[in-house]
Structures are given as structure tokens and as C-alpha cells.
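Justification of resources, computational component.

The compute hours requested in this renewal are based largely on the per-chain cost of generating structure records like the one below. Each record pairs the submitted sequence with a full C-alpha cell output. That output is archived, and it is also reused by downstream analysis tasks.
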Amino acid sequence: MRLFGALIGASVQADRHSADSFCGMAMSDILEQLPISEVTFVALLGLAPKPADLFSFEVLVGLLLSNGPGTISAQGAKGAVSADGPEDPGRVQLNKGLAGFLTHTGYTHGGNGYEGIAFLIEQFKDTGLVDPGDPGHGIDLKALALKYVEAYARYKSTKKNTGSLDIQKIPGVNHPVFKDKPVNHDPREVFIHKLMAGRGEYNVFHEFYGTLVQTLFEAGVSRNVYCVNIDAVIAALLLKMLWQPYLSGEYTGAALETAAFTIFLYPRMLGCAAEVDDHMNRGRNMDTRTPASQCQFVA
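The structure output for this chain reads:
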């Protein structure tokens, strides 16, 4: 718990700490009343959460705990455990395990959410969007997607004509696992979309991503329909919460991008602590592997 507290505290500016409060919340309230989800929401976003926003935040935390024992961040944590030697658990240092988790997150593993924020801001900056939760926003999402797809197609063509294979990927689109079918889906994204629809909640940014992957295929830019991945969901949910503060100048684009990465770190911190505990109990020295036969999931 001390390590968790240190990581959460280190994620905010020093001027938001005081002797008897954290991010404006009294220490007595944090210790006696507030759930950790609300504490981290305020720490991350600097806003008092509305019930719908807190629900979205808690759902993201659940989804981002882990991708399983083979995920890169878990490998960092388990590598630190296996280096100390889980066959003699008294030698294992938990702080090294969490340091390993931090060194194994970055721009690609965990950072794509912040790239998605920048991408969505760029696409919607001239649309006049006021409320991303209003289905009657009046924006032609198909036309908006087609405008981007046409520009992206020209960009790809130029790159290929100059002999360059260094083609920038679209943030939040496609996935190394969920691919190669005629129509692809990231099951985590599908779950979130159905969950929010069942609650009667609309998110124009999430809908735009669905329109975008379909338009990429229809325009011949992709050979199949790419999935909308979990990084797109992070960006869409977070930007929906903060779009109006962003428009009013309360939140900068840079702050949004930082929040998108940090919101990955909070739950993954918990998931990797579980991986550390698991590897201490059944791991082997100098071995980060977990037998597939021993892997289970909780739903």
C-alpha cells in the first residue's frame, strides 16, 4: 500500500500536496471515507467526478489491470522477481518489481491513449462540437472520417512513391492480435460500447472511431475492417469527460495527453503487483514464464 501511495503521489505536481491534504482532499477523508477510485480520479484530472464519469473511470481501471502474464509490463515486474529468486521468496524485493513495471511501459505499451487524444483533438477542432455526449451534435461523422481517410491515403501513397516504408499508424486503430478477419473487433472495445449503450450513454469520439475503420476499408486504404482498439477507448472516454474543460481553457492539450498515459499506469500498477505476488508464489528463478495450463481469468 505504501508503494501504491508513492506512485499515485508521484503522478501529481508537488504543489498539490500539503501536510493535511492531497489534491484538495483532506487526508482524513482519504483515509476514512473516499474510495481509491475517486481519489485517483481527482488526482489524475483535478475535477470532482460526476457519477457517469466515475463509472467510466472505474470501468477503464478494470479493463487495464492486465493483458495477462505475457504482457510487457508484467514481464518487467516478473523479471525483477525472477532475478531475485522466487524459489526463496524472502529475497524478493517488491519495490524492484514495481520499478520493473514502470520501465516496461512507454510510448507504445501504454502511451497510445495519449496519441489517441491528440488525434481526436485534431479531427474535431473545427467541428464546433460542444457536448460529446449529445447524439444530436449535428456533425457528419462519415464526412469527417472520409476527410481524414483521403488525406491519409495521399500520405501513404507519397511515402510508397519515395520508397519509404516508415508509415505512421493511426492511433487507436488495429491491433497485433485482433486482426486478419474480414471484420475485426477488440473484445474490450466491444464490451465498453455495449455497456455504455445499455446505460444510454453516447460518446461521439467512440462513434467516430467506428466510422473511421469502416471508411478506411470502403476507401480501399485497408484490406479489411480494422478493429477499434482499447487505446481508442481510453482516448474517447477521457476526452468525453474533459472536452468542455478543454474548450474553456481549464485543460490544455498537453495535460490531456499526460492524463491518457497516467490512466494506464494506475490500474496496471495494481495488475503488476498481482503478477509480482503470483510469481513469488509459483515462479522459478531466472524464468518469467507462466505455463498456459495455469492461466485463468475472472469475469
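Residues 113 and 231 are 5 Å apart (CA to CA). DSSP finds twelve helices and two strands in the chain.
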